[in-house]
Amino acid sequence: MKRTAWMNWARRGDAVRRIALVAALLGAAGRSVPAQHLLVPMDDSQQNHLKAYGLTFGVLKAGGKAEWFLNYRGGSFLLPDDAPTRRRAAVDGITVQPIDDGAVTVIRREVASANMDAVTLEKAPRIAIYAPAKSPPWDDAVTLALKYAGIEFTQIWDDEVLKSDLGKFDWIHLFHEDFTGQLNKLYLGFRDAGWFMEQRDRDLATAQHNGFQTIPALKKAVAWRLHDFVQKGGFLFAMCGATETIELAMAAQGVDIAGPFSDGTPVDPDADSKMDWTNAFAFQGVHLEMSAGVNAMSDIDGHQVNVPARRQALGQFTLFNFSAKFDPVATMLTQNHRKVVPDYYGVTTSFNRAVLKSGVTVLASEDGSPWAKYLHGDFGRGSWTYLGGHDPEDPQHNIGAAPTDLGLHTGSPGYRLILNNVLFPAAKKKPLKT
Amino acid sequence: MRRGALQRLAAMLVVAAGALWCPLSPVAAQAQNVLVQRAMDLENAGKWRDAVIAWRTVLSTGDVAQGILGLERVYQQMGQDDSVLPPLDSALARAPKDRLLHGAQLRVLRSLGRDRDARAAFAAWTQLVPNDPTPYREYAQQLLNDGRATQADTVLQEASQALGGTKTLVIEVAQLRAALGLWGQAGPAWREALLSEMYLEQAALYSLAPAPRARRDSIRAALRAPPMKAPLIRTLGALELAWGAPREGWRVLSALTAADSAYPTWSDFADDAERLGAWLPARDALVAMMALQPSPVLTVRAANAALNGGEAASAVELLAKVAPTLKPAVLRTQVLPLQVRALSALGRGAEVEALVARHADSLDAGTRHGFVRQLAWAWIRSGQIEKARAALVGATGDDEDEVTAWLALYDGDLKKARAGLKRPTESTTQVVLAIAFLSRTKADSAQGVGAAFLALARADTNDAARRFERSADELPDAAALLLGVAARLRSARRDDAGAIGLWQRIVIDYAAAPEAAEADLEWGRTLRRHGDATGATTRFEHLILTYPRSALVPQARRELDGLRTGAAE
């Protein structure tokens, strides 16, 4: 077979042919020539998808470079072949395939000819997680995922957000914090629970030593600092209740939207009309839940899990396909070996499409439903991503539930969405094509 | 018309009306029973078409409930569920408030996937009986049975609004809380239900048993809250047993007042605990029952449970109390074997010997042979090998006898031991260890190892560990195995420093041995337990990289994950 015909055969070929070709190239290289790259496949052949992100992060942290082959075998990574990387892959049980330059060339040709792209990852992002000091790691899926994958992060809380330079972080994550300062309205059912009282006292003390009279005032100020972080070029990733409440807090600067149980004063009866949605990232025209007796914040959440009469059943959401070459950001955020993912509840589970701002990119939604699950957008010089729900592998996730053991969910597609967000800020910026 | 004719007509009308409205006469009722029985027979025989005709006949004779339910079952078998709807609609037109018919209608519509129609039928039913909780209860129950908890929740919310509360639906509310995984609320809800209806204990058990481990305390707290009435105690006791905590279950149930009313509960618990192999809680329950109603049968069961649970002394004590009261035949067949086993387990050879001698005349050869083996074991356990050997003289000359094999092993005669332990009757840790050792070495004698096994039989683990370690030098082909045994014994004695030294020896000197990966893992675990995360990480990584095909690699990875995430060991 002539070389050109052979390459054409390879380009046309399916996955089996590709493997055969890579193996042939490896064989041709012989034992005397070492592989120069490690391909980390992210399709079903991968034994531990979650730790593969940690492996890639580790390479970047050590000063190395990596490539992310978007849409190629589930969003594979190309890493330099060196002893520490091989060692970590072996220890963590991550599937890697040593390949040489020839095989990489073949892959690049395939990437160039299809809806795929290669993105250079050049710098480990500096990550912060907004969580109180005593927060158990299993309270937050992101903390859980980062710890499991072995990705370093700094834990920050209200004092750090208000007083330190957030510019030292590339990426800040928020989970189910209530930025309206109403402690997720858990007052209704848990006001006598020890953990709730401790949380309330802690937040009140933080508010007072930062010069705020109430928890809602403190949390609004924190939300506004995070708003500035994004505006100045930071990347914010939020899940669960933080998505909805930070939006409300940003839009409600100067408006009392907190119930009397949290600040001693009633909600402003005209709060709905006074909200300034130009301050918010994702939503507009939202109606607040004014009743202190209803455990919901607004009509942003489509599932309303804590309001039995309104609660919607869980379904499954579908990740959208984007053009890897024209929408690399959206493509990065949706890299997965599964396109349909079982849904899971959170304080905020989903996002009502009717209140989305135009320009917001819907990354995933449930077919036929009025809600979206996964959103992304730009704001100022930065960007933000919202993922609804609390824990992708614990659909009901009740307070006090046992921690999720990620060792049992090494290929979790839901957790992959979180980790896509962690690596996204590491990507070398390309000029946008759209 | 004449007056007389009018009177006759009126009398006829009264008779006719009586025929319409009076209950069936005994003759008619008997005829209907025959029809029902015939329909049942046809149904049981799988003659569906004939059964349909028969159930329609039942329906036409006035037994609407039986007829409709029969048709529902038969049409379901035929895959024609919707065929029951026309007769059901007719029946409902005649008896629009009949609960049973409405329940059947909801059931059939749901099974056909006609959820909207089911919902409409439910709504129509609630309008017919506005203040009656029955429609809500029936529909919510059916939805719960289907696992559609959120829809059941909606129904109960509606009930709450329509009836001004859910007091009449406590069972459904409790089931719903559990079905939704709201365990913190399910406990109190079931408490309320159990205090209102005693017969719900089994339903509560079924509903609460799936609670995950982390949420069980909230259920325990709800059921234990004062006043702790008997239904709550019984339910919690059964739950603890279902949750794999029989000891805790008995602790709860033992709080029941010692009265005849407690006896059946304790008896059920003892039966279940015996079935689950929870021998010591079973023993305690049986002893409590004995205090209420003394019985030799219970005593023997309690002794057997104690013996199986490893408390031979307790068995001896129980049997001593009951033995004098029994007839010789019962004593010989039911009590004596247990006494011999218990005394043997305690190493009280002299007492076994005396007991067997006392009943020698009435024992058959097979039983006597078994007792001799128990006697030999008793002597072995007390370290008196010569007496054990003497006991076996005449009882068996068979080289393949298991007791003989053990004696040979203790003597260091590995060849004879190997022959006798080919097909062991038990699979205890010691048996498995002995077989592993014998198959590992080609040596035919090893007195040091024999002495080590003997020390182990005497439960002198310190001496056994020392001897196994020393024997490793004598038997290079089994050295790693012997060092591994010594390390495990030292670890069990909390001599971690000694154990680490042995594991280190295995990993360094016998890196190719099957025990090397285990040694790495245990070495790492011990270091982790002592807070040496770096050292532990080194060991786990060494295991993964050196023995990538070992079955222990996933465990090593989990240990590493635990170190990284700070999860509890």
Present the secondary structure layout.
The complex is a heterodimer of chains A (434) and B (569).
Chain A: H1 3-12, H2 15-29, E1 37-40, H3 49-61, E2 66-70, E3 76-80, H4 83-92, E4 97-99, H5 101-113, E5 117-121, E6 127-130, H6 141-149, E7 154-156, H7 158-163, E8 171-174, H8 187-190, H9 194-209, H10 215-231, E9 235-239, H11 240-251, H12 260-263, H13 271-274, E10 316-319, H14 328-333, E11 340-342, E12 351-352, E13 361-365, E14 371-379, E15 382-387, H15 413-423
Parallel strand pairs in A: 6-7, 6-8, 8-9, 9-15
Antiparallel strand pairs in A: 1-3, 1-4, 2-3, 2-5, 10-11, 10-13, 12-14, 13-14, 14-15
Helix pairs in contact in A: 2-5, 3-4, 3-6, 3-15, 9-10, 10-11
Chain B: H1 3-21, H2 26-44, H3 48-60, H4 64-78, H5 85-94, H6 99-111, H7 115-128, H8 134-145, H9 149-163, H10 170-179, H11 183-196, H12 201-208, H13 216-224, H14 230-242, H15 246-253, H16 263-276, H17 279-292, H18 296-308, H19 312-322, H20 328-345, H21 349-358, H22 365-381, H23 385-392, H24 402-411, H25 414-420, H26 429-440, H27 447-457, H28 461-474, H29 479-492, H30 496-509, H31 515-529, H32 533-546, H33 553-565
Order of helices and strands of chain A: HHEHEEHEHEEHEHEHHHEHHHEHEEEEEH
Considering the protein shown, what is the CATH homologous superfamily of the largest domain in chain A? Class I glutamine amidotransferase (GATase) domain
Radius of gyration of chain B: 36 Å
Q: What's the CATH C level of the largest domain in chain A?
A: Alpha Beta
Structural class of chain A: alpha+beta
Low-confidence stretches of chain A: 1-13, 19-32
Largest interface: A-B, 24 and 29 residues
Largest sheet of chain A: 10 strands, mixed
Return the CATH architecture of the largest domain in chain A: 3-Layer(aba) Sandwich
